[in-house]
Amino acid sequence: MAERVTFPSATGPALAGLIDLPEGPVRGWGVFSHGFTLGKDSPAAARICKQLAADGIGMLRFDALGLGGSEGDWGDGSFTCKVNDVIAACQFMTARGTPADLLVGHSWGGAAVLACARDCAGVRAVVTVGAPFDPTHVEHQYDACLDQVFAEGSGQWMVGGRTLTLKRAFVEDVRRAKLDDKIKGLRLPLLILHSPTDNTVGIENASEIFRTARHPRSFVSLEGSEHLLTGPGQAKRAGRIIGAWADAYLR
């Protein structure tokens, strides 16, 4: 069972979200941050959150600015906007009486939860799934239009059958983002999930995050999975691992 919600983004436009409600006794609540241009209904987001709900952990997943059902223009976003919108999502969960214990981020969303976890009041544990150590890892997806972006201020970028506008401010914001100090200063339990056969975000990213983080930190290999977790049972398996690991940190 799921509840459709909307809440204001950090910059104003409303964000569309879905709360996968726990089936049975409530163990806790969390917020999920999806990958770069994926959305709340991507396989990783939907299937992990549904599995966690089945395990008693209610999860809010939401579309980033300008994606899916959310208002605004994707091109007006940035890594900073994504980070601040995760914080806004946690504030929304607190306001409805279900404060988030857990932050889960897939791919670029994993980088975002690492960046903002300490600013999300009440969060007790953090999980990354296939996350990059450096947010600029996404540049390889739009590098073909970077010359136009820096020459004209923006450029058109085709992704997933749609056209997005990439703006110079977006690129510069991503390049300024650094996670080293955020990871070192996390001071929260961290679970890193990553596949050694991930051809989009290499396993070395998990190694860097683990090496930079301080205990308590855990790494679990999602062997046999690909980056988007679209294969049979891949996302559900990740959800089961997260649910078991999080048990010690839920209120």
UniProtKB/TrEMBL annotation:
InterPro entries: AB_hydrolase_Est10, AB_hydrolase_fold, Hydrolase_4. This is Osmotically inducible protein OsmC. It holds the Pfam family Hydrolase_4. Residues 29-150 form the Serine aminopeptidase S33 domain. It comes from Mycobacterium adipatum. One of its GO terms (molecular function) is carboxylic ester hydrolase activity.
